[in-house]
Amino acid sequence: MMKPGQTAKTDPKAEPASATAVRVLRIEGAAVLQMAEALPEDFDAAVDAILSTKGRVILGGIGKSGHIARKISSTLASTGTPSAFVHPAEASHGDLGMITPDDLVILISNSGETSELRDIVAHVARFSIPMIGISGKPSSTLMQAADHRLTLPDAPEACALGMAPTTSTTLTLALGDALAVAVMERRGFLPEQFRTFHPGGKLGARLSKVAQLMHGTEALPLVDVASPMSETLVVMSEKGFGIAGVTEASRLVGVISDGDLRRNMAHLMERSAGEVATRSPRVIGPDLLAAEALAMMSENKITALFVTDGDGQPVGLLHLHDCLRAGLV
Q: Can you give the pTM of this predicted structure?
């Protein structure tokens, strides 16, 4: 036993930490590939069962399996499948009431013999609630009770002792992701639906539509193609976007930017808006993603885009600053 203040001596023959990392990743990576090449036989049936569930998908597990169960539940919920985690110990003290006959239950236990799961197993059997079991032991109590069995491949744990849940939890997590993505794709889950469940942060911003961030028609700096530049400059100054849209018969036919003003400085006030404007400007539709608009601005080195409808009429304007405020960058 070390005395206070002593530090453990390192074994000079021990492998470097980087070598340990490579070994762990290779072991776990090989196990995931092994599962990909021999997917659990009931996988398709499990996906169909989730899709046909009228209520929620309830996840349960203890210890490391519980942490993985929470993550799978969260992934399902964020991709269009109502889901919740129920702690098995709490279930035994009243939370079984959270599991209804309309639900489906997924229980996770690498050994398949976790005693804390028994009350949930009994509950789903009593009320004929469908159950999916995820375990590394196909003949275990859990798997025998399950309606659909997702058996993990027989692969070694990555820790040196071969005991700490490492490979097994990685496999379970990857299998949960596979389930969630398969269900999401079968549902035809759309990007705008994904944004509904991810409104915050950069992810939410990148899934915003142009229409959600743009300035409306009342804010648009628009002038007619025949408008004198004296009038055009007033509009540009009042609206404050550093740009003006030039219209003809209500359609956007050109744009005047600060660059256009500099290029036409000589005799500028003698010209009309149509003579100064850059014709056939870059525009974007209101239903496209704001991220696409940002990419277009970046590619063309511009700071604003007019938004037009199917007839070419301007319905909005998106400025780079709008994208910045939304957290898109």
A: 0.61
